Amino acid sequence: MKISYNDMFTNISDVAYEILEENDMFNDETDDMFSSDRTCKDVTDMIHDQKIVRKRHFAIKSVLLVAALAAMSSILAIAHNYGAALIDDSNRHLVGKGLHGEGQIIGADEEIEVPDEPSDGIWETTARIKSYKNVSISPNSITEFAVSGDAGQYITPEIIFGNNDLVIFEQEDGSGWELNEGETLMIQATEYEAETNGGNGQEIMYFYICDGEILDGKSEPRKELNQTFELTAEKSGEYYICLLGVSSDPISLKEGKIVIK
């Protein structure tokens, strides 16, 4: 059975909604709690918050929920295997497309195994990050992309990245941007429309690196096609802007710009 991951999470949300309604547990605050994107983000966040747990077995009584969790395993495997990449002729056909996979319906008493979470060793794959203790994420992949241009305005390349892929933008020589306290580094980019999201954008979370330490950009996930993030330096130092994909389907960005304000 082929089904998009976006549709899979929508099905989970619908079932959860029905359960709450049948048990008189529904209230006004649950109106926006069961979107497919929120379900995907919440599940991913729970995985990140349980770094000590490496393997789990679950006996699931709901056939639909078992099939959905099997699909989640596929999502994590796909993200881990591919990571982020420049958009070129080899992957341009994936721009704006949703991930599809085979969902297997299994018996109510059967068990599935959730794959290992990414280990802290992922941070060793980049020389840009020396400390990560103040963030609660553990990316599937980390990829640096060089920008072009100078004189205070830089062009970011077209890229495609998946759920839990961390992207770091850097200058052509690998360095970040030297900011004085109070200066602002801003990134602007436009997503390609996603076919599974009604022409809307996919969700991106923003982080930044300051003198080797990755920190939370203190922003909610952005779902707009036109993405903007501003980082104001709290102290003088070397800064990088980082993007994390938090949608179930790949995110494709057109050329954007980074400017110092």
Q: Please outline the major beta sheet.
A: 6 strands, mixed
Our estimate of the beta-strand percent is 25-35%
> How far is the N terminus from the C terminus?
51 Å
Number of strand segments: 17
Cα-atom radius of gyration: 19 Å
User: On the 0-100 scale, what is the average pLDDT?
Assistant: 77
Give the helix level as a range of percent.
Answer: 10-25%
Tally of DSSP helical segments: 3
User: How do the helices and strands follow one another from N- to C-terminus?
Assistant: EHHEHEEEEEEEEEEEEEEE
User: What ranges have pLDDT less than 50 throughout 5 or more consecutive residues?
Assistant: 50-81, 102-106
Structural class: alpha+beta
The 3D shape can be described as globular
Structural features:
globular, 261 residues, 3 helices, alpha+beta, six-stranded mixed sheet, four-stranded antiparallel sheet
